[in-house]
Amino acid sequence: MEFTLENDKFVNMTVLEVLRHDFHFPGHLLPGTAFLLMGFWWIYNALDIYFSDYKDTDASENACLMRDCDPDLEMNLSKNSASIRRRTFTATYNGEMPGLLHCEGFYKLLYASVDLGCHVWVVCNGGNPIVEGQHMTIYIFFIIDAFVNILHHTRLGCRFPKGTEFILPSITWIVFGFLFLSHKHGKDAIQIYYHSTLAWVAISVGVMSLVQFKYDEQVLVALVRGISCALAGSWLYQIAFSFHNPLNGITQIYVQQAMENHSPEHDHNTVLGVMRASSYLTWHLIGIILIVGILYKFVSERNTSSAIYYERIGCC
Question: Is the pTM of this model over 0.85?
């Protein structure tokens, strides 16, 4: 494509816009990494609870088969019935100790505070307060959710209504999606589609949090919530490398896209770009499902190897 003199001013403005957005590359990687880690943390713990319950149930069934042969087993079985009952899949997965380092909310608070501070710094250095304000609002909600997690886990005397640990993250993720549906400043149609897709993925995490509150004994619901969170993280990586990668000739790409936006082929390119982005999202989902399969196999073998099997015998 040839650049004419009448387009020089437009091209120069586009280059300046690119340079101003270079800091957005790490700004997308940071939340992307946090959401990936959180999503896979939820998936791993959901699988661990699922196979632990399966192991306990299998042990109890074997014990029941032996009950007629050894009456003492019936008494032991009733004493241990609490460990045999199915555990629920919680909104957060914390360690067994009450300390902060064993609390999922502590790491949420750490991440959200860092990201909030970065956006405050951007505003103080000339950033658009309306644009950055959307990001800051999201992280304020994450911080509120984190504080509730910490107060609940550390047992500081705060009692919350049942389901608070599900409702708050649901509100947080839905607010995230709602704000990003209007996150269209300085973006072309392709970029708007990428961010709108991220918004709907975020809303799906919030919806699945509500569904899990209702069906807290269903492992598939817990897994879908984790997969949705991980998908939001991987899609932020896609946005970072597609539009803000400073190591891949980003200036040239932006200038070329800006010129194409003023060409007769713009509509056609937009349609193809949306189709390509939709394919990318499904490929991200396939990759996450494959990782879930690997985690499934790992957790399954680990719990199987540690299971206690009872000898199935017949009674005379």
Answer: no
